[in-house]
Amino acid sequence: MQLVLFQLVNSLAFGMLLFLLSAGFSxxxxxxRVANLAHGAFYVLSAYIGYTVSQxxxxxxxxxxxxxxxxxxxxxxxxxxxxxxxxxxELRQVLLTLGLTFVISDAIRHFWGADxxxxxxxxxxxxxxxxxxxxxxxxxxxxxxxxxxxFLVMRWILRGTLAGAKIRxxxxxxxxxGTLGLPVLRISMLTFAAGIGLAAFGGAVGSPQLALTPTLxxxxxxxxxxxxxxxxxGSIEGAxxxxxxxxxxxxxxxxxxxxxxxxxxxALMILVIAVRPQGLLGRKLGNA
Length: 288
Hints:
By secondary structure, the protein is mainly α. 73% of the residues lie in helices and 3% in strands. The mean pLDDT is 86.
């Protein structure tokens, strides 16, 4: 029973990291119409930035703050200098962001090396916690709480604020939104920054949970794509549910049938596509 509960907590924590990553990916593709295959690379790069700042300052949360801000700024730079020239050209976006992934990965190897780096959880979450007589690591609970809080805040912004209404309008119909006077390009740029910032935040806070390695980018990008496909494009609620499902399937699969764990995640995605092609809570592009 302790093994099951231990794996449940770790799986939910991983699911929350996937949500932070995939929610930003979904926002960027839904609003800016950019297929950003460098999303996982920004996640990893920001994790390394947070690691460096926390090592230098001795303050983990300062590293998270700097990494999140740096990720958002780098996202804006990439959008303005590169991706803004390719609006509506999905194939070129894919090739460009794929190339950007290799550039970021080589930059990480140059500045930080290829060795695996581990990050200690911040005080007071570096030790275990006892619940019901069972001992658990405490930091996964922090990730679960952070993921739920970010989900609730994002849902409130998108559903209950004027800024959220503008984002949803641009997502539904950018041409009509521009005709009605909404600054579509500005909204797209800010959404791109917010999406990369979410990934950067996830990378920084997730570094004590997942060891840092330059090859982590491709894994996280793949998971982000799977979560978005399962949850449905443009749905934060769908991304949250899908991230939890993928985290559970991946976590328990790695323990009980490790040879088929990755296959189980893809099987889940195929099953959802077969039953509901637009995802659990998604909608087709162009529909309100």
